[in-house]
Amino acid sequence: MNLQLKLDDAWFTVCPAGAVQPGRGVAALLPDGRHAALFIDRSGRAYAIDNRDPFTGASVLSRGLIGSAAGRAFVASPLLKQRFDLESGRCLDDEEVAVQAYEVRLGQQ
Amino acid sequence: MPPILEAAARPTLLLVGHGMVGQRFLEALVERGVADSHQVVVLCEEPRAAYDRVHLTSYFEGTSADELSLTPADFMERHGIELHLGEPGQSIDRAAKTVTTPAGRTFAYDILVLATGSYPFVPPVPGKDAEGCFVYRTIEDLEAIETYAKDAARGAVVGGGLLGLEAAGALKGLGLSTQIVEFAPRLMPAQVDEGGGAALLRTIERMGLDVRTGAGTQEIVTDEAGRVTGMLLTDGTQLPTDLVVFSAGVRPRDQLARECGLEVGERGGIKVGEECRTSDDAVYAIGECAQTVDGKVYGLVAPGYAMAEAAADAIAGFPGSFTGADMSTKLKLLGVDVASFGDAHGATEGCLDVVYADSRSGTYKKLVVDPDGKLLGGVLVGDADAYGMLRPLTGSVPPVSPEQLVLPAGAGGPVKLGPDALPDEAIICSCHNVTKGQICACGTLPEVKQCTKAGTGCGSCVKTILQLLPQSGDKGLCGCFGHTRAELYEIVRVKRITSYARLLDEHGRDEARGSEGCEICKPTVGSIIASLAPAIGADGYVLAGEQAALQDTNDHFLANMQRNGSYSIVPRIPGGEITPEKLIVIGEVARDYGLYTKITGGQRIDLFGARVDQLPGIWARLVDAGFESGHAYGKALRTVKSCVGQTWCRYGVQDSVRMAIDLELRYRGLRAPHKLKSAVSGCARECAEAQSKDFGVIATASGWNLYVGGNGGMTPRHADLLAQDLSDTELIRLIDRFLMFYIRTADRLERTASWLERLEGGLEHLREVIVEDSLGLCDELESLMAAHVAGYSDEWAETLQDPERLARFVSFVNAPGTPDPTVQFVAERDQMKPDLQVLIPEGALTAR
């Protein structure tokens, strides 16, 4: 099983699912030069958002801790701890801020 | 706001003296609106506004002058009060209604209030003014004693009363061998009876203080230069000493009043009536300078406060009076609890005693009752916990027999007589006369202090107040756990839970079970599992299995993330001691990787600017050269600083470097609720700044003094002295216990300083638990630490050995060889710094 995210209309394979420890994230370099942060939670569900922390500009969100609040998964930035919803990319601590969220799947191709 | 013209026409109220009672008086004026209707002017002799003289000795324990202050910074300004510091009243002209100061300034008054306090009594013996003689009254006195004591080895205190014992404790704390000379046949003659004095004497002598009772001072002996060398006592004893503190009682400062013809008592004190008015209707006197209608001069703060209230009432036109006061007190002197209340000396006709005395433990308790069983008063020495309960019961028949009230646990007692048993009208705070009913009307301790002032005087009632208040709501760690960190620690320890998921699913809040958890509880539980790893059978390596998913990013990559996503690296340099060869290795690694280097405050070297994919290569070289992780990234022991100590320094008395290295190697890798810092100083000059550390060690001629709970940072705190003159073995055993007890009971991200502040019973409780082993915990605490020490291994060495673990040290999982292009640097002062420009894309949100 591979971890894949959707770019335009194609699925982009990032890595084998086993390369991501449940509860943590990895960073991926996308073909256009952007960085994505991919996560797998303890139930095996995958998420992907932009890796750039909009508060500091550093490419670090993949290194944050994930958690859940009211049933929705989030990642807390490792720098200043703002939380981002993993499905929508919305910042939970500042409603004017959001990062891009990607469609993601565990697929065979 | 009244117009200015009107303000100028307001009558002037002049207060001479701004001590504790003076400040309380000003507050009482404000509360009654007098500060608005009058122009209030204050003359203060000391260079600083009113401070807490009752807790003066805590100045030596690290409490700053600011912390002792009783005057809120904007108090005077907010209430339009004019305060003149360093300007005492020198003479009063009652006909002209003016007060003149030594600076020659004259202040007019319509109402004059004297709160000039008292002065220390110095017996008129030859040599009393020699260099090395001090009194114990103001912060300046303490500063002078502290300075002089630096070149002194022995100190003597004249007076074995309340203040004398405070002063003796302070001298001992300054490292002097200390002697107490008391004229009366027992210590604290005013407060305790013969039995209580004997219990106190034994306990104080056991602490190594030399006590001479029944002896007066005949002469202070000096050398040719006029410096104190000893004392000659009335019993003929020659007592060698370098320093003398006179603390033999106080006398009212009534000179101003005498000179302007106000009536003064035979044994001193400005005579006042029930409203605290003197023989001149325009002049009041309050506090220790006044002789009240019962013919007494009160030297305690609570009656002074009551007088301040009475005078403010009279000035405001309210009914109020002061006719006498309860002399009850509870104190901790030299660590010994001493309390007396009501008719402590059994002066009431026909009264009876119930006494419990245990000279082994230094406990003495006496209750005075009348034949019908009504409690009249009592004396408690050594264990005064019951004071908060007994004093309010005075005047009533207690719900249980007096025998049961004095017996210790397991000997017929204890009767758990909580504050619930008190009637609503029972006085809980005797400094401010606050009843149980008034306290129960508030919700929290800060509210109680603000609304009723209870607990803001001597502070002895705070414990009782806390027992009266409802427990605050949710103390849970986070949205996932309803337990506190300390409770989770116990659950993990007792049930030997090594998995976060299991802990969350079995002990989390209902709505959080089965969920992902959160960024608060994950690292907290990760830390608890790491602290307890050897005891619960978990892997001691913080990145093992599921534990890796719990760690904050710094622990996860064993380095400290910096603002541009790069990392800094701190190799351990135990005690700050390092060979030239190792320094060269650090220099070479930094040069080869282009790292920015900076010396840290903890005597180590920090290497900045490594990309995540460079960490293994850097550490391979460091480990190869004999370095190991410095845990700068962890809530763990950071460093143990040291001075060079006896080995090199002419002042050193112990080998502080060796001890620092021993301690650092012993506790390295220990995970805790927050970071832990330490230091070892080789002499009392304290160059290693051990008193600002979580645990600090200072060498003495005969061993080590251990200080705990210090902190620098945002809220600096001087550490408290936990134990003195310890051997190496005793020192390490005590630190083992201290750290493990802290790890067991502290909250998440709670440093030892705030933990100790919060700990119920404070330092004394800590001492009971880890020195006297009152909870029987010490064996367990020590064996937990022994297991930690035995199980330690270097996290970086372990990580380097495992290719799977190394695989996560990449910038991109799908391009392991590609560095993160946003981690860039620019030159600054011959090194490099993060290039923040690359982090801000055009037209994007501005980084904060």
UniProtKB/TrEMBL annotation, chain A:
Q: Which GO terms describe its molecular function?
A: 2 iron, 2 sulfur cluster binding; nitrite reductase [NAD(P)H] activity
Please list the GO biological process terms of this entry.
Answer: nitrate assimilation
Is Oxidoreductase among this UniProt entry's keywords?
Answer: yes
- Pfam family of this protein, just one? Rieske_2
Q: Where is the Rieske-like [2Fe-2S] domain?
A: 11-107
Query: Does the UniProt entry include the keyword Acetylation?
Result: no
Q: Which UniProt keywords apply?
A: Nitrate assimilation, Oxidoreductase
**NCBIfam families per record:** nirD_assim_sml
Q: What is this protein called?
A: Nitrite reductase small subunit NirD
From TrEMBL, chain B:
Q: What class of enzyme is it?
A: oxidoreductase
Q: Which PROSITE patterns match?
A: NIR_SIR
Q: Which segments constitute the Nitrite/sulphite reductase 4Fe-4S domain?
A: 634-773
Comment on bound cofactor? Binds 1 siroheme per subunit.
Q: Which residues form the NADH-rubredoxin oxidoreductase C-terminal domain?
A: 328-386
UniProt binding sites for [4Fe-4S] cluster: C643, C649, C683, C687
Would you indicate the residue range of the signal peptide?
A: none
Functional pathway: Nitrogen metabolism; nitrate reduction (assimilation)
What's the EC number here?
A: 1.8.7.1
Q: Which residues form the BFD-like [2Fe-2S]-binding domain?
A: 427-469
Kindly provide the name given to this protein in its UniProt entry. assimilatory sulfite reductase (ferredoxin)
- Native species: Streptomyces mesophilus
